[in-house]
């Protein structure tokens, strides 16, 4: 506790989150009403800002990787990667997606299949609707999402390992410098507080979705009721599990769970792939990849100002806000495990591999569900419309060994939640302990409890919409911070390159001068 008792970032952030928890618990209806109003205002007024910001992050990452800065090592010259590539990707996959991919892997394509994106003129339940559903699902879980995480990871890795700054979001924008003015210190603390609050809200959104899905699965399989009491019990059980994992240390807890998670996901994917409509899944995956590439820029900027509608705001804007909200956590975690890799390696590793895994997941589970509805009238889209949390379990009901598969899925969701939450408590501990790489047990426990508490309050007060609202509100100020991080990173890289070129020119000039002097002496 000693490392936190005088840290204003820790206490201000913790107090703000605690007050939100108390407000939501004491007056859930009033809390939900105000949250809904803020949600509508944010999406209506700033949806365009989210879309432009995220495509900027994509282009920025690609520019750094492909251009002259791609070979810059995120560390000193002798630093080597701490983790093998397979373990590194597994940790990225588990921490980055959490339960979101399991929640939406079937639910999103089936929702778009029944209700295609507004303004495209596509009729629901048709072949064209299925194709559009897969394309937009790939889009929402693809490169754009991971570009946000990549920006934070690159900036934190570069300034922490190359410039030897502390592991804090503020250190990627403002350095200590020679003068330590109160104004600069205040700005840095504000940046870090915003990062902490955004992270808590983003992770709480994922945790809440997972809790709803676990309850939905238990209800579908065993008729266990879907109510606040059951959801609070699930929250408490998960809290104990992820606190145990987080306090056991990064290598012991997170690394083991990440590898287990990746293995379980692969087993489930292969089972559905080979027992389901294999050829249909492979063909739909191929088609969706082509559609994704073809419509990449169109989807990046797609809005409907002339036709009205809220589809883009409800889906794309929410997704971008959600990933921005928990990008401090993912980015800091990526930086923590990526020392010694080059900019090009990190960009292609983080920006390409996890999105590809997500697309495969969506193609297998979403593709299987689409096949069942298109050719067997399974009614999955209708079931998802009634209860979005049941999407995965309704699909698995059409496969052999339904009980085993559903049980494995619930276990997988739990492991996803534990992995994401214990990673978050670790990173939040760092962010509120002046960037210490081994935060205290006290700070990790505090953040673990607060994440669970805010998630429970959001579920009880306004359900899924409340979870979405939390991410959207927290993400808005942090989007500006992300843009500043990009400019700060680019400016520092440019200065380093210029300094290196000047050193090279001096060395060459010295050699030429030395050779000229030697030649003159010989004469």
From TrEMBL:
It is a multi-pass membrane protein. Keywords: Cell membrane, Membrane, Transmembrane, Transmembrane helix, Transport. It is found in: Cell membrane. It comes from the Bacteria. GO terms for molecular function: transmembrane transporter activity. Pfam families: BCCT. InterPro entries: BCCT_transptr. The chain crosses the membrane at residues 9-26, 46-65, 85-107, 138-159, 190-212, 224-244, 256-282, 317-335, 347-370, 404-429, 441-464, 470-490. GO terms for cellular component: plasma membrane. The keyword Nuclease does not apply. Belongs to the BCCT transporter (TC 2.A.15) family. NCBIfam families: bcct. This is BCCT family transporter. The lineage of its organism: Bacteria, Bacillati, Bacillota, Bacilli, Bacillales.
């Amino acid at each position: 506790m000693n490392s936190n008792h005088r840290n204003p970032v820790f206490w201000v952030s913790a107090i703000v989150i605690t007050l939100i928890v108390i407000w939501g618990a004491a007056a859930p209806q009033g809390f939900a009403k105000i949250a809904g109003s803020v949600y509508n205002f944010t999406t209506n007024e700033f949806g365009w800002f989210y879309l432009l910001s995220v495509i900027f992050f994509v282009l920025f990452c690609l520019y750094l990787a492909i251009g002259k800065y791609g070979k810059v090592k995120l560390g000193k010259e002798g630093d080597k990667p701490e983790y093998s590539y397979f373990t590194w990707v597994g940790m990225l996959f588990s921490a980055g997606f959490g339960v979101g991919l399991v929640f939406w892997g079937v639910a999103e394509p089936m929702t778009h299949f029944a209700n295609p994106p507004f303004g495209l003129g596509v009729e629901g339940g048709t072949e064209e609707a299925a194709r559009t559903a897969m394309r937009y699902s790939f889009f929402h879980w693809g490169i754009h999402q991971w570009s946000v995480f990549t920006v934070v990871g690159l900036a934190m890795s570069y300034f922490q390992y190359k410039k030897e700054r502390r592991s804090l979001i503020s250190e990627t924008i403002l350095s200590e410098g020679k003068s330590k003015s109160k104004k600069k210190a205040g700005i840095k603390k504000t940046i870090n507080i915003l990062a902490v609050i955004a992270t808590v809200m983003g992770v709480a959104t994922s945790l809440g979705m997972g809790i709803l899905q676990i309850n939905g699965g238990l209800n579908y399989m065993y008729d266990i009721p879907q109510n606040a009491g059951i959801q609070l019990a699930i929250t408490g059980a998960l809290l104990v599990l992820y606190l145990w994992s987080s306090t056991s240390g990064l290598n012991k807890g997170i690394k083991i769970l990440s590898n287990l998670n990746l293995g379980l996901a692969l087993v489930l994917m292969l089972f559905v792939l080979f027992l389901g409509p294999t050829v249909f899944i492979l063909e739909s995956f191929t088609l969706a990849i082509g559609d994704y590439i073809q419509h990449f820029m169109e989807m990046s900027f797609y809005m409907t100002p002339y036709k009205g509608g809220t589809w883009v705001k409800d889906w794309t804007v929410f997704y971008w806000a959600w990933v921005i909200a928990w990008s401090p956590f993912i980015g800091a975690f990526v930086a923590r495990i990526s020392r010694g890799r080059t900019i090009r390696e990190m960009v292609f590793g983080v920006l390409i591999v996890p999105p590809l895994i997500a697309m495969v997941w969506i193609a297998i589970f979403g593709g299987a569900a689409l096949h069942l509805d298109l050719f067997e009238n399974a009614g999955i889209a209708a079931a998802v419309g009634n209860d979005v949390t049941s999407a995965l379990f309704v699909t698995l009901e059409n496969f052999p060994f339904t009980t085993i598969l559903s049980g494995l899925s619930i276990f997988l969701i739990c492991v996803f939640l534990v992995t994401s939450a214990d990673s978050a408590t670790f990173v939040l501990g760092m962010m509120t302990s002046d960037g210490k790489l081994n935060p205290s047990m006290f700070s990790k426990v505090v953040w673990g409890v607060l994440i669970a508490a805010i998630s429970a309050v959001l579920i009880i007060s306004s359900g899924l919409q409340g979870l979405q609202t939390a991410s959207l509100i927290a993400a808005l100020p942090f989007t500006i911070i992300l843009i500043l991080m990009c400019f700060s990173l680019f400016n520092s890289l440019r200065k380093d390159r210029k300094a290196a070129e000047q050193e090279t020119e001096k060395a060459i000039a010295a050699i030429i001068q030395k050779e000229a002097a030697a030649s003159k002496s010989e004469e």
